[in-house]
Amino acid sequence: MFRAERQQSWGWVIAIYVFLAGVGGGTFLFSFVFAVMDMYRPVARVGALIGPLLVLFGTFFLLFDLGSITKAYRLFTTASTLLTSWMARGAWILAAFIICGLAYALPSFELFNWLPWTQTSGLRQGIGIAAALLSILVVVYPGFLLGVITSIPLWNTPALPLLFFLSGLDTGIGVLAIVSLSFPASLGAAGFHLLGAAVELALILLLMIVLGAYIDIVRQSGVTASASVQLLKTPIFIGGVIILGLIVPFGLSLLSLFVSDELTIRTLGGITGTFVLVGGLLLRYSVIRAGVRISVR
Asked: Residue 113 belongs to what H/E stretch?
């Protein structure tokens, strides 16, 4: 006999881990792009360091969920798991990104001028390119981690990695918008308009479209999937994700495009970034907790 039941294995711990991986990867990716384009140098310098540190912090939540160092060690030492486990692949991706990301970011700070590669060296740029490519994998891989669980239709869809990717980029820009508040002179009104308004506005709009398509795809995937969609209709998802994490930031970003006062633009950008981060965390928690699987009784 088949019976639908809500998954109870994963909750806030995995949600925080997945969130930090996404926001860390997104923060680094945009920081690297801005550095290559020679834009917002102080913000890009700090963001490149924050990105891998956020991912490193997120791995502690993964270790906590695994329950023991031995299990974590096996992710790196059992070669066969790389062919079958996205958890093992993710562990290697995270480790490689953290190492490459920090190796790229640290030479920008005087405390680490003893490193053999300098801020302007070709080696550092090569490391940065590798870290940027890895950051993309870091952002999308949680979608594959959940997606391989075929018994939960809410997760087992190609739309989930895309949803997490856009959310990672959105939250990454949110972090940089908050960081930019400490460097107002390096951006100016035009910089805040582009970073905290135009780019954020475009990403939120794309995220709204993909989230709507994701829910619609899942809703039409069967009874079990429909049950998951019903579980998404909670105050956390509707109020925290849809309203606080998407609609309000969209409105604030749109408003800031028509504001000329730099202080007001910065304030709106900081508030928008904060709301986006809260919405990104609640999105991942909602998707994880609404997972409904089919069990055999």
From this structure: none
Exposure b/e, 96-134, CB count within 10 A at least 16 = b: bbbbbbbbbbbbbeeeeeeeebebeeeebbebbebbbeb
- What is the rounded CA–CA span in Å between residue 119 and residue 107? 5
- H helix runs in the chain, sequence order: 12-36, 41-66, 69-77, 81-84, 86-105, 122-147, 159-179, 184-193, 199-219, 223-232, 235, 248-256, 262-289
* Cα 203 from Cα 52, distance rounded (Å): 22
Helices 159-179 and 262-289 pack at an angle, to 10 degrees, of 150
Mean pLDDT (the chain) is 83
Distance CA 138, CA 248 (A): 27
pTM for this model (two decimals): 0.87
Please give the torsion angle defined by the CA atoms of residues 186, 136, 66 and 81, in that order, rounded to the nearest 10 degrees.
Answer: -150
d(CA 243, CA 15): 20
Q: CA-CA distance, 103 to 297, in Å (whole number)?
A: 51
Q: What is the pLDDT of residues 208-217, one digit of tens each?
A: 999 998 888 8
pLDDT by residue (tens digit) across 239-249? 999 999 999 99
pLDDT digits (tens, 9 = 90+) for 68-81: 555 555 555 555 55
Distance CA 6, CA 231 (A): 9
Residue with tokens 């959310």: 167
User: What are the structural domains of the chain?
Assistant: 2-296 (1.20.1630.10)
Which residue is associated with the tokens 């018994």? 151
Nearest to 186 by CA among 43, 46, 70, 55: 43
